[in-house]
C-alpha cells in the first residue's frame, strides 16, 4: 500500500510519491488552495503524512489553530504532521547578541535591524503574519488536536539554517 503524503507550500515536489498543495499553480502542484481557508476539495482522513516547511508563518497569527485543525481533519488517524517555521527565540537571541544568520536579502550593508525586520516580516508579497517559538508552536498543535508533539532535528527539504524550528504531531 502506498503512503499518501502531502507537501504544502513548495513549487516542486519532494518526489513523485507526494501530492503538492500550494496557493500558486506551479507545474508540480496537484492542489491549488490557501490553507488558511477550508480545504473543501480534500476529504477527511486522506493523508498519512503532511509536511509544511516555512508556510505557517505566512498565515495570519489568529488563524494558526484554525488552519492546523483543517490539516488535522485531512490527516488519517495516527498520521503525522511535520511543521517547520522560523524560530523567533533564535532570531531574537541573535539580534540581542548583535549577530545575524548571514541572511542579507535587500540588506547590502548587513544592518542588524534591517536583518531583524527581514527575518520577522520577510518581503512582499509573502509577508510573515505570525511568529513562533517552541512553546507557542507546541501549544497551537495541541489546541488543534495533535498529540505526541516532538521537536524535529532534520529538515526534509529546504533547510533554513539556524532559524529552523520543526515539530511533529500525530492525529
Question: What's a quick, concise take on this entry?
Answer:
Helix content is 23%, strand content 25%.
Features of the shown structure:
alpha/beta
Percent in strands: 25-35%
Kindly report the name of the CATH homologous superfamily.
Vaccinia Virus protein VP39
Strand order of the largest sheet: 3-2-1-4-5-7-6
Give the count of structural domains. 1
So how many helices? 4
Would you tell me the overall average pLDDT?
A: 94
Instruction: List the quaternary state of the chains.
Output: single chain
E-strand count: 7
Major sheet summary line = 7 strands, mixed
Low-confidence stretches: none
Structural class: alpha/beta
Annotate the secondary structure layout.
Elements: E1 5-8, E2 18-22, E3 31-32, E4 47-53, H1 64-74, E5 75-86, H2 88-96, H3 112-121, H4 134-143, E6 147-152, E7 164-170
Parallel strand pairs: 1-2, 1-4, 2-3, 4-5
Antiparallel strand pairs: 5-7, 6-7
Q: How would you describe this structure to a colleague?
A:
- The chain is α/β, with parallel strands linked by helices.
- It has a single domain (5-87, 125-170), classed as Vaccinia Virus protein VP39 (Rossmann fold), CATH 3.40.50.150.
- The chain is 23% helix and 25% strand.
- Helix 1 links the parallel strand 4 and strand 5.
- Helix 2 runs antiparallel to helix 3.
Amino acid at each position: 500500500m502506498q503512503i499518501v503524503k502531502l507537501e504544502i507550500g513548495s513549487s516542486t515536489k519532494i518526489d513523485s510519491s507526494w501530492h503538492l498543495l500550494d496557493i500558486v499553480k506551479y507545474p508540480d502542484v496537484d492542489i491549488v488552495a490557501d490553507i488558511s481557508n477550508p480545504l473543501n476539495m480534500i476529504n477527511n482522513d486522506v493523508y498519512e503524512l503532511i509536511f509544511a516547511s516555512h508556510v505557517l508563518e505566512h498565515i495570519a497569527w489568529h488563524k494558526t489553530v484554525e488552519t492546523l485543525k483543517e490539516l488535522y481533519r485531512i490527516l488519517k488517524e495516527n498520521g503525522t504532521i511535520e511543521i517547520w517555521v522560523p524560530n523567533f527565540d533564535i532570531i531574537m537571541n541573535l539580534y540581542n547578541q548583535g549577530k545575524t544568520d548571514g541572511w542579507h536579502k535587500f540588506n547590502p550593508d548587513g544592518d542588524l535591524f534591517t536583518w531583524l525586520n527581514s527575518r520577522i516580516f520577510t518581503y512582499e508579497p509573502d509577508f510573515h503574519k505570525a511568529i513562533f517559538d517552541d512553546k507557542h508552536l507546541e501549544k497551537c498543535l495541541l489546541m488543534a488536536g495533535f498529540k505526541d508533539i516532538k521537536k524535529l532535528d532534520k529538515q526534509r527539504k529546504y533547510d533554513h539554517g539556524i532559524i529552523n524550528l520543526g515539530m511533529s504531531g500525530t492525529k
